[in-house]
Amino acid sequence: MCSLEKKGNIFVLTLTGSGEHRLNPTLVDSIRSALRQIRAQSSSSSVLITTAQGKFFSNGYDLKWAQSSHSRLHLMDAKFRSIVADLISLPMPTIAAVTGHASGAGFILALSHDYVLMKRHRGFLYMSELDNQLVISAWFMALIKCKIGAPTSRRDVVLRADKVTADEAVKRGIIDSAYDSAEQTVEAAVGLGKKLVGRKWKGDVYAQIRMEVLSDVLDEIHIGNTGSKL
Questions:
Q1: What is the end-to-end Cα distance of the chain in Å, rounded?
Q2: Which domain of life is it from (predicted)?
Q3: What's the average model confidence in pLDDT over 208-219?
Q4: Model confidence at 6, in pLDDT bands (50, 70, 90)?
């Protein structure tokens, strides 16, 4: 599940508990509900920070649940596509404060934010599909292409299944910055959030520009509504 806290114009969405934060319908519906609340309560200049408790930001899809039937696979992918589409259209800047491992769809969740800050120790970014004998979906790849600019970095993420540490992710241009602890990571995210709030951008304008920047991702998300792959 997740919790939502509002600090001035900054919303903090936290994946709660000490587990792996596997993306199953229960967690995804909780996140979507929080995003609806954020959209309803947002002012003209707001920011979203997404973070998590425990040693995982998110360990990706709940494959044990999803792979028991094709209908569950389709439902899981469709629900997660909706979250990413919601984040892309959210009328405010978004920051992922990654305080633990982010694997597979959990990595995609982090990349769906405008800024990614990460804890240095005991955490990595990992597209696990190759190691798990799974094809990376077209909409995942569309987001990766938009967010990871260097071809060699994309290759190592998707065709080597590298487990990328925070410092290495900064060097490769995958994330913005790295910090020594979870607390420092969240504090830095709040500090960045305050700076972004201070710019007093109109949320709807910000969202429209982001949607144009990530139009290829949105196109693939909408195409994916006719079928799904993990």
A1: 22
A2: Eukaryota
A3: 98
A4: very high
Say if CB 96 and CB 156 are below 8 A apart: no
C-beta neighbour count of 105 within 10 angstroms: 28
Per the CB < 8 A criterion, the answer to whether 49 and 38 are in contact is no
DSSP, residue by residue, the chain: -EEEEEETTEEEEEE-SSS---B-HHHHHHHHHHHHHHHHH--SS-EEEEEESSSEEE--B-HHHHTT-HHHHHHHHHHHHHHHHHHHH-SS-EEEEE-SEEETHHHHHHHTSSEEEEESSS--EE--TTTTT-PPPHHHHHHHHHH---HHHHHHHHTS--EE-HHHHHHTTSSSEEESSHHHHHHHHHHHHHHHHHT---HHHHHHHHHHHTHHHHHHHHHGGG----
Stated length of the chain: 230
With beta carbons less than 8 A apart as the criterion, state whether 197 and 8 touch: yes
Flag whether the pTM goes above 0.85: yes
Residue identified by tokens 């629900």 is: 79
